[in-house]
Protein: GAF domain-containing protein
Organism: Pontibacter populi
Amino acid sequence: MEYRFIHHWQYEPGEKENLILEEAIALIDKERSDTFLTDLAAFISEKARAKYVLIGLLTDDAQKAHSCAFLRENQVLNNISYHLKGTPCNEVITQRFCYFPVDVSDSFPTDVELKELGIESYLGSLLLSDAGEAIGLITLMDEKPLENAAFAEHLILVLSPAIEEELIRLKEKTEQKIAG
């Protein structure tokens, strides 16, 4: 899979960011375990300084998402399933990338979870299969504006191919269980 540059920032990673990107590449080159997506979500949460990170697998009709990794302040939360209609995640499906620096919950008044969690900012990116079909999404959310959204997007773009591979593997594993 290739890197996809969806949003264009006037941004050049500094020395600190480049070291983090090298760390990210080393992380995805390690042998993968069942906690791979959770480990990546924790890495993204820490390095992008996002309170919440969710990596989700989409249903075939892209109407619903099932979280495969959901963290709050690097603590693993129970996985959830949710309908995308009326959420910023639905915008990710149609636009491939979206960023709401402030007031995201006001922009999606029917998404009660955003209000309950006190979410102020949201950054989301679409994840694709080898055939270019929507397979999942990754979201970063916080109660305050993200400190460096341009770097957060850059980090996601570097990690996306590995996340996509893992989502494809999980989807195939689930389909084999259903068929078998």
